[in-house]
Amino acid sequence: MFMGVEHVGVAVKCLDEALRIYRDVLGFRLLSIHVLTERKVKAAFLSTGGETHIELLEPLDSDSPVAKFLESRGEGIHHIAIKVYDIEKTLEEFKKKGVFLVDEKPRIGAEGKKIAFVHPKSTKGVLLELVMK
Q1: Residue range 23-43, pLDDT digits in tens
Q2: Is CATH 3.40.718.10 the classification given to domain 2-132?
Q3: Would you call 96 exposed, middle or buried from its count of C-beta atoms within 10 A (0-12, 13-18, 19+)?
Q4: How far is CA 131 from the centre of its chain?
Q5: In which residue ranges of the chain is pLDDT below 50?
Q6: Are 6 and 54 in contact (CB under 8 A)?
């Protein structure tokens, strides 16, 4: 069912400041930046040198989910994204097992891949993102 970690999402107040740290100081390579107006977030993907990426998330609006996360928890890890072989099948299996889902059906994510979120109530407070490879 699972193929490994796709990326780790990090909520930040200012993407430019975060890029100065992650890219300029730590040396991660910037792969792309996406503005997702419908989700009220700006996302930057960075290479770790391996298969797993880092996604920096800056809210575009004070009522976005990332802004609410920052307000309650501050900057830091927002979610862990797991690569799956078959996202529809994974969601169906999770539903049968009583897992709370944010997304009952997949949607298209920042990089054009099918994604769906698993509610943190089912994962001891960790927001999981499923990513179809």
Answers
A1: 999 999 999 999 999 999 999
A2: no
A3: exposed
A4: 9
A5: none
A6: no
